[in-house]
Design goal:
326 residues; mainly alpha; Polysulfide reductase NrfD; membrane; transmembrane
Length: 326
């Protein structure tokens, strides 16, 4: 954008439009530079469900190796349920189910969408086999098909757990590779927020669905994930320059503030729940709600950041001033 076109009238006075605290911000008559995303609530719901599934897969693998059958069963079923729910939201947002199939025609390493699609393809079958082993009736487990599924359950679960970190974080990479300022400027931090949020949700799910005598790994995962989410989420409010305003104001701020309250409360509860089943369930639900609100808050911040041209223009000018390639 040239400097002559960058000048905007404040009313009809011909003066440049400036806001307090901004460094030499100018836009063309205050008009938007970007169109806001056309995505609806299905997308943040998809982000949450996919992260929950990935964390449950990790939790299930750990429970399997440490011989915690009830936690293993709950986590395996949670991984399958989260995956199925996320795929439903994704396909519903695409509008036509065959569009997901069409993405399998090519593998494009430079495209986060293509890489993410293949990550889901590698992740899904193992989750399905591990969950099927938990759902088989006892009489079928002694027959040939049931024995085969039972034998494949552990390697399938471990294989899915190996891919799960990619499932939890690729959506953050997908968002940050768009032109939306609040997502693009947070590209170095967003994967950590998403991964921590997913771990908190998975731990919370394990706390809700598992008796307290087997839920210790879930409580630990929840605490670590919650701390990671809280620390890295706060960086979005403080270290993105002018773009941080999109996270600190409006609906995005309210959603993320409630997310912070619930996540912090759930993390504290996971450490203090002890043998109390009621405290564990309450803390787990708080962690799940906090993780969901985090995704919706980040989504809302991205939408809002496209409505004000300063979130596009100011970072671009700073990159030019530093000699960076736009």
């Amino acid at each position: 954008m040239s400097r002559s076109l960058g000048r905007v009238a404040a009313g009809d006075t011909g003066r440049e439009q400036r806001s307090p605290g901004e460094e030499d911000f100018r836009s063309y008559y205050g008009r938007r530079v970007l169109k806001e995303p056309v995505w609806e609530w299905l997308v943040p719901a998809y982000l949450f469900a996919g992260g929950l599934s990935a964390a449950c897969a990790e939790l299930a693998a750990g429970a399997d190796l440490t011989r915690r059958p009830r936690l293993r069963k709950a986590a395996r079923l949670g991984a399958l349920g989260g995956l199925a729910t996320s795929m439903y939201f994704l396909i519903a947002d695409l509008g036509r189910p065959e569009r997901f199939h069409h993405m399998l025609r090519v593998a494009k390493p430079s495209s986060p969408m293509s890489v993410g699609t293949w990550i889901l393809v590698a992740y899904g079958p193992g989750v399905g086999v591990a969950a099927a082993a938990e759902l088989l009736p006892a009489r079928l487990r002694r027959r040939w098909p049931g024995k085969l599924i039972g034998a494949l359950a552990r390697p399938a679960g471990l294989a899915s757990a190996a891919v799960a970190p990619g499932v939890a974080s690729y959506t953050a990479v997908l968002l940050s590779h768009t032109a939306v300022p609040a997502w693009n400027e947070a590209r170095d931090r967003l994967p950590f927020v998403f991964t921590g949020s997913a771990a908190a949700a998975g731990g919370g799910f394990g706390m809700v669905c598992t008796p307290v005598d087997e839920a210790e790994p879930a409580r630990k995962l929840a605490a670590v994930g919650a701390v990671t989410e809280l620390v890295t989420s706060r960086q979005l409010d403080e270290r993105l320059g002018v773009v941080s305003e999109a996270y600190r104001t409006g609906k995005a701020h309210r959603l993320r503030q409630w997310s912070e309250y619930l996540t912090a409360g759930g993390a504290l509860g996971s450490l203090l729940a002890g043998r109390s089943r009621a405290a564990a369930v309450t803390s787990g639900l708080a962690l799940l709600a906090g993780s969901a609100l985090q995704r919706f808050g980040i989504f809302e911040a991205g939408v809002q950041s496209t409505k004000d041209p300063k979130y596009v223009v100011v970072p671009q000018r700073r990159r030019v001033d530093r000699g960076e390639q736009a």
